[in-house]
What does this fold into?
Amino acid sequence: MKLYNKYAAWWPVLSSPKDYKEEAGLYRKIINKHKKSITTALELGCGGGNNASYLKKHYQMTLSDVSPHMLKMSKKLNPECRHVLGDMRTINLHKKFDLVFIHDAVMYMTSENDLKKVFATAYNHLSEGGIVFITPDYFKETFKPKTSHGGHDDPVSGRSLRYLEWEYDGDPSDTTVETDFAYIFRERNKPVRVDRDISITGIFPKKTWEKLLREMGFRVYFEPMEHSELEPGSYIGIVGRK
Ligand SMILES: C[S@@+](CC[C@H](N)C(=O)[O-])C[C@H]1O[C@@H](n2cnc3c(N)ncnc32)[C@H](O)[C@@H]1O
It folds into this structure.
C-alpha cells in the first residue's frame, strides 16, 4: 500500500497514537488474564508502533515490520524499543519471547498458507507456556461492509490529512476483502493534494483460525472485546498458548 511506503511519514496524521489508548488497555487485560508474568514481547507488523507506545510500558518490546518506512516512524515514537525489519511469515530472530502480539497487520495474510507461516513464526519465537495474542479486524462471521473516515491535524509539522475508507467483499467465495482509500493531504503553503490507495486483506472463518493454530501446537481461546467505537460483539481477539 502507498500508505506504508510513499505516505508512511503521514501515518501519525492519519492514525494518531492517542486513538489507541482504549484498545491497548483492552489488550493488556486479556494478555494479563492468560499470562501474569511477561517480561519480553515481540510484535509482528508493528506499523507506526501506536499500540506498542502503550504496551512498552509493561513489556520489553521488540518491534518488527516488513516496511522500512513504517519502522522508521515507529522508531521515532518508540526509540527505546528494538526494531527489526522482516516479514511476519519468514522472520527468524533466533530468540524466545513470553508474548508475541499481532495486531491488525495480520489482516494482510490473504491465504491459509500465509496464516500457517505466521503461526509458525509466532510458535518459534515463544518460550514454553508463552502466548500469542492476535487481534484480527474481523472474521468471516463478523465482517460487514462499511465506510469510515478520519484524520488529524499536526500543528508541529503543519500537516493535515483526511481520509475516506470503503471496505467491501467483492467476491464472498474467496478469502480476500478490498478496501479503497481516498486521501486529502494539506500542508502549509502547498496546494491540497488528493490520492487513492487500495488494500487487499484476508477473511477467514473462526474455525479456520482455530484449526490452523491448533495444528501448529497452540491451545486456542477466543476473547470478545468491547470497544466504545465498535459494534458490541464485533471484535474478537485470539489467544494461543504454547
Ligand atoms: C495498520 S499498520 C499497523 C499499525 C499498528 N497496529 C499500530 O499499532 O500502529 C499495518 C502494518 O502491517 C505491515 N505488514 C503488512 N504485511 C506484513 C508482513 N507480511 N509482515 C510484516 N508486516 C506486515 C505493514 O507494513 C504495516 O506497517
